[in-house]
Design goal:
The relative contact order is 0.04. This protein has six helices and no strands. The longest helix is centred in the middle third of the chain and has 34 residues. Helix content is about 80%, strand content about 0%. By secondary structure, it is mainly α.
């Protein structure tokens, strides 16, 4: 029973994440000059226009080169570090591990800063403080 429930929830989460991509690709195949879903007619003309524009092609190639370089650099740095952390006990191992894991926190810090800025601009923070002070 639990296994079936886990499968259903997992499939629902995957569908929720994939649905915007399906809509985007479907809308990109439309024959109209504006985004429409479901597409009105099917064409690949928008893709040929994109591939015919040198600025898009050069941006795609540059992005691909940067991605390959970053991947190679990450593999050559991360694999020896992971082997060292897993096999050896040394002074500063915890700090070294925390340093390598610290980029995982960056999205949360950025989200917190954005929410703080939004809350300050919309006076949500003041209203929230009033609500909490009234409750307690």
């Amino acid at each position: 029973m639990v296994s079936a429930l886990v499968r259903i929830v997992s499939f629902a989460a995957l569908a929720y994440l994939a649905l915007p991509l399906v809509v985007l690709v479907g809308a990109s195949l439309t024959t109209t000059s504006f985004l429409a879903f479901p597409p009105r007619g099917l064409t690949l003309s928008w893709y040929s226009k994109m591939l015919g524009d040198p600025s898009y092609v050069s941006a795609f190639l540059l992005s691909t080169q940067l991605a390959v370089a970053a991947t190679i650099l990450a593999v050559f740095l991360a694999v020896p570090a992971a082997i060292a952390i897993a096999r050896y006990r040394f002074i500063g191992r915890g700090l070294f591990t925390a340093t390598l894991m610290s980029p995982l926190i960056l999205p949360h810090v950025v989200l917190g800063a954005a929410l703080l800025q939004y809350g300050g601009a919309s006076d949500w923070c003041a209203a929230s403080r009033r609500c909490w002070s009234d409750m307690w």
